[in-house]
Amino acid sequence: MAIVAQVFMGIGVFFVVLGALGVLRMPDVYNRLQAGTKATTLGFLSVLLGVAVLHPLWIPKLSIIGLFLLLTAPISSHNLARAAHRLKVPCFIACVDQLAESRREDS
Q1: What is the domain count for the chain?
Q2: What is the pLDDT of residues 79-105, one digit of tens each?
Q3: pTM of the model
Q4: I want to staple 40 with a disulfide (CB 3.0 to 4.6 A). Which of 6, 14, 19, 64 is the partner?
């Protein structure tokens, strides 16, 4: 069981490092949010799964931590992206602003 736990934790660490590299390497705030949120959430959940395999008595606490992470990471990422959009932070690549287009249609 220790080998399975180490594999899950290794995969988790890989995704967390990949997410950190994505935050450093991506060109604009929107891509950085995407890389940071998706990869690190998957990485932390994998680490939690590895710890759960190693320590089965901790599963209720780890489940609560995982649920909290699954609920808060996308919400915080969405709010940061919305704040960046309101501050008119530009995209690196030409992108279509569907939010601005929907506001024009409503008026």
Answers
A1: 1
A2: 998 999 889 888 877 677 777 766 666
A3: 0.81
A4: 19
